[in-house]
């Protein structure tokens, strides 16, 4: 790769222009740069009511 190719990718390639979810990218407890990959990858497997269901089980 030469400098022109790299600069074209940085400024114009669709893969580099992808908007990233703030929570799943940088969040302290959920972001890919802050947690291990297995934990991050499993986050999309949670049910929509996952947190509510855990809180209910803890309070029983």
Describe this structure as you would to a colleague.
The structure is a single chain. The protein has a domain of 41 residues. By secondary structure, the chain is an all-alpha fold. This is HNH endonuclease.
Name the descriptors.
60 residues; mainly alpha; HNH endonuclease
Q: Based on Cα principal axes, name the global outline.
A: elongated
The low-confidence parts are: none
Main β-sheet: number of strands, strand sense, barrel status? none
Mean pLDDT: 76
How many alpha or pi helices?
A: 4
Derived structural class: mainly alpha
What is the H/E string? HHHH
Roughly how many Å apart are the termini? 60 Å
Q: Could you estimate the helical fraction of the residues in percent?
A: 40-55%
The amount of beta strand, in percent, is under 5%
Q: What does the radius of gyration come to?
A: 18 Å
Number of strands: 0
Describe the secondary-structure layout.
Elements: H1 3-12, H2 22-26, H3 37-42, H4 50-59
Produce a short descriptive summary.
This protein has 60 residues and is mostly helical. The chain has helices spanning 3-12, 22-26, 37-42, 50-59.
């Amino acid at each position: 790769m030469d400098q022109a190719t790299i600069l074209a990718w940085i400024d114009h390639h669709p893969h580099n222009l992808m908007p990233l979810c703030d929570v799943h990218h940088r969040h302290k407890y959920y972001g890919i740069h802050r947690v291990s990959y297995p934990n991050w990858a499993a986050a999309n497997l949670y049910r929509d009511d996952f947190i509510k269901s855990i809180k209910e089980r803890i309070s029983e």
